[in-house]
Design a protein that fits this description.
The chain is an all-alpha fold. It is built from eleven helices and no strands. Helix 7 packs antiparallel against helix 8 and helix 8 packs antiparallel against helix 9.
Length: about 180
């Protein structure tokens, strides 16, 4: 009897601590949280509207612009995604908050609009910022393959192999490089 009562109390406490569902977060007073929830629910237009309203109030919010860039990519609005990521890189540079992932995301958006040379330039800037990051090296090798830049691809492949010889993707990259 005591055990049953304890279990009932324990279950009630657990229910109170449950994480709210995304649908519940849509009513969040914080516009960025609301936009992120709408984004996760794939309500891209609503999410975009929320973020744009937020940006009007805080035009230097890198977080807001990054969410906007993700929304554009998810909604396949690649032209706006490219413009947004270009703005993010410029803003981050002005705020002295640039990181390699800004350039990687810019490169991804450039690939989506088939500007492969521009994508390579952005990826190179990411490598300059984080020359030993295996994820960035892997990305630039892949970008070089897509852009059919064989010599550059081999250069970054060898660098990746040196930095991370246990990388699971090395064999696949090697096969793709041999076919290039």
């Amino acid at each position: 009897r005591i055990l049953a009562r304890f279990q009932k109390i324990w279950l009630l406490r657990l229910q109170k601590q449950q994480v709210p569902k995304e649908e519940d977060k849509v009513n969040d007073p914080d516009p960025l949280h609301k936009a992120e929830s709408l984004y996760k629910l794939e309500r891209y237009q609503d999410a975009e509207d929320e973020v744009i309203e937020y940006i009007k109030k805080d035009p230097k919010s890198l977080t807001a612009y990054q969410l906007l860039g993700e929304i554009y990519i998810a909604s396949k609005n690649f032209v706006h995604a490219e413009a947004t990521w270009e703005h993010i890189v410029q803003l981050a540079n002005r705020l002295k908050q640039t990181n390699a992932m800004h350039y990687i995301d810019l490169a991804r958006s450039k690939i989506k609009v088939e500007k492969l040379e521009d994508a390579l330039q952005a990826a190179k800037k990411a490598v300059i910022l984080e020359p030993l990051n295996p994820k960035i090296l892997y990305f630039i090798v892949r970008t070089c393959i897509v852009a059919k830049q064989k010599d550059m691809a081999w250069k970054y492949y060898h660098k990746l192999k040196k930095v991370n010889p246990e990388n699971e993707g090395l064999e696949d990259l090697l096969e793709e490089l041999k076919r290039l």
